[in-house]
Fold each of these.
Amino acid sequence: MSMTKPIATTRSATGIPTGKLAVWWVIGSEIVIFGGLLASYIMHRLGHPEWAEYASHTNPWFGGINTFVLLTSSLFAVLAHYAAEHGDGKKAAKWLLATCGGGAIFAGIKAVEWTIEITHGYTITANGFWSFYYTAAGIHALHVIAGCIIMLIIANDARKGLELHRVELIGIYWHFVDIVWIFLFPLLYIAK
Amino acid sequence: MAEHTEDHDHGQAHYVKIWAVLLVLLIVSILGPVLAPHLEFGFLKAWMITLMTAFGIAIVKAYLVAANFMHLNIEKKYISYMLATMLMFMLLFFAGTAPDVMKHKGQNWENVAAEAEIERALAAQGEAGHGEHGAEQEAAH
């Protein structure tokens, strides 16, 4: 089935392909969403001396291992982009699946971590710190899950050699999710 | 074809190299708070070292990912300006609201609820000794 693409898909005033430009704008608005949340956390953390004790209960090993998992999945995503750029859709799809595997491991570790914390009484309503903890990490985890779903759809197309430019687009999004975690990690696990 | 293969290998090796640097930085940021008390001298206090290894390294890591993996280094400048504008919005938001949250009283106002909560929580933490079960006790309240 061949369909004519909308004009917006093929024209470009900025010299940047429309799909890529759209992803950058998504990231621009995500900066405001996550940035607002993190800035709000920072000002509360600085204004509330009692949060230091609350924060001391997070486990940096869970955070550290998850940082390793996300950084590695970002490497896989950029290798997928590289394969797509060289016209190798099958290889790109394989790397995207590996990236997705990283996302799944990340979410799995998060599930174990949260289960331990919740059973110890550190719930989202325990106090302001834990509210921010679950909200920030939770919104981030939703981005990981959404990214994985989109990545599977793109991998399925890439496998057949279709829409290979989208491999780069999901990669840019995935690296952004990685960057958000790079800041969440010291905020929630290291600076105590 | 030979050239193409060479280029291919070089590109992938570059990404793996960036990834390795990111992992080294991750290890430093985890070890930072552990090593900081042993490294302080003169005006350089442990908390400053922790801040540097935590947030200084986070900024470097974010830059490495953005420049090399997201290819911002070869992207049109328009994108960098757009992202920088969003970061400025974030700083503006912080500057506009932080004084009301970080301080609990001013010339014509006092945040009684925040002050009471800090006092209550610090007292509860003091009673709980080292605060091993702080959250459980507070959740029970």
Amino acid sequence: MRQEKRHKLQLFYEILCAIEDDVYHNKIARPTHIQHNCRLSYDKMMNHFIELEHRYMIYRDNSTGLVSLTSKGKKFVKQYNELINLIERAGL
Amino acid sequence: MTTQELHILNPLTLLHQSSASTTTFAPHHAAYIAVTISALPTSLSLFSLVVTVASIFLCSVIAMYFYKSYRFSGFGYLLGLPTGFAILAASFVFEHLHVIYSYSYANESLENVFFWIQLALQSEGFAFIALSYMLKNRAGSINSTARLLPDTYKIFFSPHNWIYSSIKIREIIVGVLPMILISIPLMITISALFVQPILNDTELKDMSLYTTLFDIVVLGYVLVKCLKPLVKAANIKLLYIPASFALLWLEQYSLIIHYFDNNQFAFIGSIIVRLAGLGLFVYAIRYVISSGRSREMEVER
């Protein structure tokens, strides 16, 4: 089944949520897990990682490749949740 | 020209004691009356200013939050809501200017122009809000629209299909509907200029009736569209936003009552109901955001 095109911020949100989820369950977030959860190709996901890192939303350990959320990334997830909740409450 | 004719568009005149008493004067005293009421009473000016500032502030808050939601989610159809509320805020500025100039005998034409702009902007604002609700179900069906294209092509190029494609024609009408919705307020207001380029009070008052009727229909549509998914969720706390739309609908209804019997209480009621509606909307936004935060704090604990 063809998947609908996702907005960039929606992709960021899904990646950040996947990281949060992986850290919650496995204590660490592996790129392959995130790739699987977000249904992205490895190249595209790495591009998004670079952008998220530039925006200080994630932190990547260059030696192990493990990823973690920064406080800015957590704030983004929270804000995204609030605004999506608002859209739902407005019946939109 | 009598004082009543002078201020046919401004119900606030009736609220002021001195102005109200002057309306009983005979027509030949018009010049004297015009001099006495040429200055806007400070209390009314202040009241109008407070109402305008409050309305603009509330509209700006709503527009800001929904613009943020649009930026975050990326759904284009959401842009109608902040645009609508921003236009609505602009209409309140012209409403205030109309009230200010309605007391100035020398600038009667300006008063009419401001009232005309206010009516046009208000209806346009509501139309943009309705546009978001109209396009909401179409945003997810990009694939189905893509599938529709070859069929639409067939409608235009195969005469055989014209007869049997009532469903497809309906789809085309549905596709054109948002454009019609946005253009109606402009058509109503601009057509008034075609009938008579120099606007007079009676003509403007009739135009206000048409635009108010349009607003009632549009807000009714928004209310139903907003209510449907929330009723299914069966949570009373979700109904704040539909309730605020209902209050805005009530504002327009009060204005209709005011049009027919010139009832000053209906006009005052419309102002109160409008402020209550916008206030409830902002409260609903704050409630949604703060409830999200408190839920998060509970999870952290």
